[in-house]
Design a protein that fits this description.
By secondary structure, this protein is α/β, with parallel strands linked by helices. About 55% of the residues lie in helices and about 5% in strands. The chain has a 5-stranded parallel beta sheet with strand order 2-3-4-1-5, with helices on both faces. The longest helix has 22 residues. The structure holds zinc ion. Pfam families: DNA_pol3_delta2.
């Protein structure tokens, strides 16, 4: 099994196959969904189709030298625009880090990318000079005489600088394709969006996660089943869980919320000290998992019960749902996200966990529903 063949979204893949077979792929394509839904592997797969020199029914043959280079992300006509720190940074200078990041986790989010590009904690953007550089490169003939592809990853970071690309998207140079990838479609200029054929990537299904874990990442079947249950339809979380054998995220999360809900200050100190003693990466992974789980509570509230296969932590979530005003969860997520960023910026983790735990405790107290006495 190859990631580029499936990327966990068979329905999207099937749509593309039809479009490619009919030779109707437009030159501007927008893929949107959460990073854990496979938007980046999807973009790489489609780019490979476009760059293949001997396509079969429009699809990549995966055998020719062009396919080989596209799969290794070293095809000279495969360009990327990436969110970077520093207005003078160029994406091309980060291609090594980018390849390494994709190799490690093609389901990564922006936070994880900033770790790979060594700009953790800094503000990133897609910058003017980078856009100008890449549009100049695209205006030349292709290196291999075939198609050229530009993947704009997390293209919401274009913001209004997107205008610099607009003209090229409207009147593209010959054999040039743009693949925009985003988890915030609304942030993309409507003038650009309207030029693109758009594809939505829904949360990845449990069946697909299970299959990717077993066939692509060689996870043991029983472990894969457990991870699929815990991964909240997010392949990024699933991969993190598959790699994380030290901390049992679910148990740890339950322990944390118990500590928060109890009225024993000692327990808070004990728990936060223990968490602060873990590797920084583990702490960050734990927070990502906690954020995904709390989002699940939000979804339960809105009756969008797409995670109904997840039964393990159901009881605790049910309790929390019944006892707190739903508006609290957005604030809890924000607190956790800010905690994540602070850990990424090398904050004192012992103080951070203490502060974060007490803040969440206070937020929850403020929104505890009055009709239930506990
Ligand atoms: Zn090929």
């Amino acid at each position: 099994m190859r990631l580029l063949d499936t990327f966990g979204q068979p329905a999207v893949r099937q749509q593309w196959d039809t479009v490619l077979q009919q030779g109707k792929l437009p030159h501007a394509i927008l893929l949107y969904g959460e990073p854990g839904s496979g938007i980046l592997p999807g973009a790489l797969s489609l780019a490979n189709d476009i760059l293949c020199s001997t396509p079969v029914y429009g699809k990549a043959c995966r055998k020719c030298p062009s396919c080989n280079r596209a799969q290794k992300l070293i095809h000279p006509d495969l360009h990327f625009l990436l969110p970077l720190a520093g207005s003078k940074s160029l994406s091309i200078e980060y291609y090594d880090a980018w390849r390494e990041a994709i190799g490690a986790n093609p389901w990564m989010n922006v936070f994880q990318w900033t770790q790979f590009s060594d700009v953790e904690g800094k503000q990133v953007d897609i910058h003017k000079e980078d856009i100008e550089q890449v549009t100049t490169n695209l205006s030349y003939e292709s290196f291999e005489g075939g198609n050229k592809v530009l993947i704009i990853w997390m293209s919401q970071f274009l913001a209004k600088e997107g205008n610099r690309l607009l003209k090229m998207i409207e009147e593209p140079p010959a054999q040039t394709y743009f693949i925009l990838v985003t988890n915030q479609r609304e942030q993309i200029l409507p003038t650009i969006r309207s030029r693109c054929m758009q594809f939505f990537f829904p949360p990845i299904s449990a069946t697909e996660i299970n299959s990717l874990l077993i066939n692509l990442y060689h996870t043991d079947a029983r472990q894969a089943e457990q991870i699929t249950l815990e991964s909240v339809n997010d392949m990024g979380t699933a991969m993190a869980l598959a790699r994380n054998s030290i901390v049992n995220l679910k148990e740890e999360l339950t322990a944390w919320f118990r500590t928060i809900l109890n009225r024993k200050p000692n327990e808070i100190v004990t728990w936060t000290t223990r968490m602060a003693g873990l590797e920084k990466e583990e702490q960050k992974q734990f927070l990502l998992y906690a954020i995904a789980s709390v989002r699940e509570i939000l979804h339960e509230n809105s009756d969008r019960n797409i995670y109904s296969h997840q039964t393990g932590s159901r009881e605790m979530f049910k309790y929390m749902n019944e006892h707190f005003n739903p508006v609290v969860w957005q604030q809890v997520v924000q607190g956790m996200q800010s905690g994540y960023e602070k850990i990424a910026r090398n904050a004192n983790t012992k103080l951070l966990w203490l502060f974060l735990t007490i803040t969440i405790k206070n937020t929850l107290s403020a929104y505890r529903l009055q009709h239930i006495n506990t």
